[in-house]
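Lecture notes, structural biology module. Today: joint structure prediction for complexes of two components.
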Amino acid sequence: DAKTTQPPSMDCAEGRAANLPCNHSTISGNEYVYWYRQIHSQGPQYIIHGLKNNETNEMASLIITEDRKSSTLILPHATLRDTAVYYCIGVPTGSYQLTFGKGTKLSVIP
Amino acid sequence: DAGVTQSPTHLIKTRGQQVTLRCSPKSGHDTVSWYQQALGQGPQFIFQYYEEEERQRGNFPDRFSGHQFPNYSSELNVNALLLGDSALYLCASSRQGASTDTQYFGPGTRLTVL
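The predicted structure, tokenised, for the full assembly:
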């Protein structure tokens, strides 16, 4: 599984876009990039995933660079409820486990 | 559409005791994974169950065991509890055969070992 590197913490003003970076320079061709978030003391929440193309859903957008060595999760209009730890995870096709790192603690500031 | 449910929400046990945690997967899901999350750490994979068999196991001792029932629900059993077993235990479900096997997590069971 690719090792992912994320900044330990970030701040974002409420209403602004939150851009969370993730480096995964050792990612293999069959590895998906998954993003989860965990609000304090709750179970992780699935956000979005992608392989090569950019993806968008009702929660966020995922931008993956052409060389697939990094990606950015974009929350278009951050709210206070988006304050959480965000995890970027490389998941090989057919893998059974998620390997969580330390993630990025995002604080949305009023 | 019911999501992943876990019971109980909280549990307090003493060292040496045994505990059983329960998980019901999301509707339409047939695979259950268990994770342990110590305070301040990311979740760590314990094992995954599919077709009532343990399919893969993380780096956890044999004191941790599980079971999956024909209705896809699952139990996690921990024997001879240690203080270090205090953690949030998370269950995640997924659907075998889906292109990316996305796992969806329940709210967790908070276990405290005294």
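Point to remember: The interface with chain B takes residues 32, 34, 36, 41-46, 49, 87, 91, 93-103 of chain A (CB under 8 Å).
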